[in-house]
Every structure is written in structure tokens, then in C-alpha cells.
Design goal:
CATH superfamily: Isochorismatase-like
Shape: globular
Number of domains: 1
Strand content: 15-25%
CATH class: Alpha Beta
CATH topology: Rossmann fold
Strand order of the largest sheet: 3-2-1-4-5-6
Distance between the termini: 46 Å
Largest sheet: 6 strands, parallel
Low-confidence stretches: none
Structural class: alpha/beta
Number of helices: 9
Mean pLDDT: 94
Length: about 220
């Protein structure tokens, strides 16, 4: 049996740099700090790339939106998250009012110009005002950066596609963690990241590096 392999040229996918917004997903202490509950060590290495893109976006007058996933201290808004993520479900991570849900101090966030978005689920679109925020500014393209590649970043990209925003997913400004064996083998962070990027390139939007995006932004 011959395996059919999808092929595509993502340069043909629409992306409008002048009508784009930069989304910085969950670059917060609970994901980036050393010893954090959901530490993504590779995420800390993204900071120079993301800060560079933030500077480029500001220079072009493009919106910058930084997100944090937060849950009420009593857990009333957890839903299925309670069962899927025991650390969050037990109140050990992503708790409203704690330092863990604050943006990492090395992230170039400016409250005077940038938007700070609180979300309750993986996607930055789910249950938030993000879509309205972008529509009001005539934005039709989104740039995805942050953590984690295969979960919150991918979920945001998927929801963007479903709302007909063009997606540009930045390969070296996103990162993830390895996955333990759940019955089909374990996977390193690099393997998870590479597969997620490939899947996104086939089904959700364009994938490119910080340098490639910088060239598009001019």
C-alpha cells in the first residue's frame, strides 16, 4: 500500500502584512519561569524572537495582543480542564491573582500600546472579545507566536482559520514540550514541534521563520 502524502505551497496562501495582528500566546511565568508548573524551557528562548516581532509590529502600527490563561481560585470556570490538567484543577497553576499568570518580565509588553487578553481555554478566540477587537481594526490576518505550539498556539490558529483570518505561524517564535506515552509512544519537544508545524502548514496557514516574516513586514 502506497501512502499518500499531501503537498502544498504555503506561499500561495493569503496573508496581508498591513492588515495583520501579532498574537503572543501565554508567555507567562507559569509556562516560562524555571521550575514553573508547566515549564516550557524552549519557550524562554523565544523571547528575543518575539520581542523583535513586537518591535516590528509597533513600528508598522499593527496591534499586539498578549494572552494569559487564567482560572478563578475556586475553579468554577475549569470545566473539562479540571480533568485534563490536574495541576490547574488542583489550583497549583494558572490561578487568577497569582504571579504565575503574569507575563514574563523579559517580554516587551507595553500596557500603553499593547492589548492584554485573559482567556479561559486554549484558544485566544474562545469566550473572549478577540474577534471583535480585530474586526474593529480591519484586521484579516494573524501572526501566531508563543507557547505551546501544539496546544494553545495551534488552537488559536485553528479558531482563526474558522473565522476566516489568514494565519501566519512563526516556527522559531513558538515552542512546546515533550509528551509522555499515552499508549502510542512518547515524543520529544522537537518531535511534537515539528509535527505540529507540518500539520499547521497543511491545514491551517502559512508557516515561516522570524526572518521570513520580518521581510514580509518590510
Amino acid at each position: 500500500m502506497t501512502e499518500h502524502v499531501l503537498a502544498m505551497n504555503d506561499q500561495e496562501l493569503p496573508f496581508h502584512p498591513a492588515r495583520a495582528a501579532l498574537l503572543v500566546i501565554d508567555m507567562t511565568n507559569d509556562f516560562l519561569a524555571e521550575g514553573a508548573p508547566y515549564e516550557c524551557a524552549d519557550g524562554r528562548a523565544l523571547l528575543p524572537h518575539i520581542n523583535r516581532l513586537i518591535g516590528l509590529a509597533r513600528a508598522k502600527g499593527l496591534p499586539v495582543v498578549c494572552t494569559t490563561q487564567v482560572h478563578h481560585p475556586g475553579g468554577a470556570d475549569l470545566g473539562m480542564v479540571r480533568h485534563l490538567h490536574p495541576l490547574t484543577g488542583s489550583g497549583k497553576a494558572l490561578v487568577e491573582g497569582t504571579e504565575g499568570v503574569e507575563l514574563h518580565p523579559e517580554l516587551d509588553f507595553d500596557p500603553a500600546t499593547d492589548e492584554f487578553l485573559v482567556k479561559r481555554r486554549y484558544s485566544a478566540f474562545y469566550g473572549t472579545d478577540l474577534e471583535n477587537y480585530l474586526r474593529r481594526r480591519r484586521i484579516d490576518s494573524v501572526i501566531i507566536t508563543g507557547v505551546a505550539t501544539h496546544s494553545c498556539c495551534e488552537a488559536t490558529a485553528r479558531d482563526a482559520l474558522f473565522r476566516d483570518f489568514a494565519v501566519y505561524f512563526v516556527s522559531d517564535a513558538t515552542a512546546t514540550v515533550g509528551l509522555s506515552d499515552a499508549g502510542w509512544g512518547s515524543f520529544t519537544a522537537e518531535e511534537v514541534h515539528r509535527f505540529a508545524l507540518t500539520d499547521i502548514a497543511h491545514f491551517l496557514g502559512r508557516v515561516g521563520t522570524t526572518d521570513e516574516l520580518a521581510a514580509l513586514l518590510g
